[in-house]
Design brief:
The protein has helices at 17-28, 80-83, and strands at residues 13-15, 36-40, 49-50, 52-56, 64-68, 71-75, 86-92, 97-102, 108-109, 115-117. It is mainly beta and 118 residues long.
């Protein structure tokens, strides 16, 4: 009898410890019906696609699910191909705070950094 080896595939997006901590903080303050936080890439901005992080209340069939110490992080199934290999970080300074993405698939971005193109 041959033993079948199952290889786990890596997550499409890697969350830094700062991003995981921010997901935990978001889930601690989440509405009662939220089951996690979801990253998607809606068509928006001057370059075509934008990053959007929102609460999610139901699991969609093709969404990627990543378990983090502070809660579940989902990636929209239609966005996964644009995000494979990305690193998501949470950055705060004196003037701004927000998620920052290092996306190897992005071929360009707008001047303000709000949108990207693949």
């Amino acid at each position: 009898m041959t033993e079948t080896k199952v290889r786990t595939r890596p997550a499409a997006v890697t969350l830094t410890p700062n991003a995981e901590a921010r997901v935990a903080a978001l889930m601690a303050a989440a509405p009662a019906d939220a089951i996690g936080v979801k990253l998607s890439t809606p068509r928006r901005g001057c370059s075509g696609l934008a990053y959007s992080v929102d609460y999610v209340t139901s699991e969609e069939r093709f969404d990627e699910k990543i378990e983090t110490p502070g809660g579940v992080f989902y990636i929209d199934g239609a966005s996964v191909l644009y995000l494979i290999g990305s690193v998501m970080d949470w950055v705060e300074d004196d003037f701004a705070a927000g998620f920052v993405f290092e996306n190897p698939n992005a071929k360009g971005a707008c001047g303000c950094g709000e949108s990207f193109t693949v």
